[in-house]
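Comment thread on ticket #2218

A.B. wrote:
> Attaching the input chain for the structure job we discussed in standup.
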Amino acid sequence: MGKRVIISVSSDIGISLAKRWINEGHQIIGTYRTESPSTKMLSEAGVELVYANLSNPDNVKTACKFLREKCQNWECLVMAPGNQDPIGMFADCEFDGWKESISVNFIEQLRVLHSLLPIKDIHSILEPLVLFFAGGGTNNSTTHYSAYTISKIASIKMMELLDAEIPDIRFSIMGPGWVKTKIHQATLDAKDKAGENYKKTIEKLDGQECNPMERVLDCCDWMMSAPKEVIGGRNFSCVFDQWESIELAEILKKDKNIYKLRRFGNDCLTV
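C.D. wrote:
> Ran it. Output below, let me know if you need it in another format.
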């Protein structure tokens, strides 16, 4: 049977996932910031849409009220919006814009989640799924993208914290890798402010190295059906992790530290 799913469809990944899942028989309610031919197509396909501008907390509260009325007993919540701005070195960024980026990429997404927690489904065999999306910066310093990066790092840790606090929901986060989506337009517009990533983005988008959208959607399908002991509180790389592997699932069940934020080299010199 189809599941009751809430998806933020402002992003290309969200739109593509909504298209796939409605074709698979799921009941979709979508949040959007900007009307487009894609949102019109989703509406015509039966997706109920609600306007949610994450830059406006009052509007987010209104959207959450709508969702609480329309999607009682939801079984999956996918938060996929993302905004790379402001791009540039932290010291050169206008601070209020930097702060707003963290609000859009982290705080207001949690407002949506917090509002919807009380109406989750409690009757299905598999716990409801909350899926966020990660970005770069877990293994290095992604300069010029501090607001976006710190928001994604915070989201990774928040999924781990919530998974520990709330046992009857599966919280997980997935890094899709380089995918040809409109999020990269901010880097293309920033040019020199993006540093070396400007040239890298052009090369990635023009080449054959980007992760296919279908692969990202396949990973979402897998996470929809994976048990809490495998995906709960973890950050998965769609590109590099063998998430379809039964062997990996067994490894994850035995070690709760894998795919989570941890210090590196803790034992290099101990007292």
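A.B. wrote:
> Thanks. Noting for the ticket: The domain at 4-181+212-254 is CATH 3.40.50.720 (Rossmann fold).
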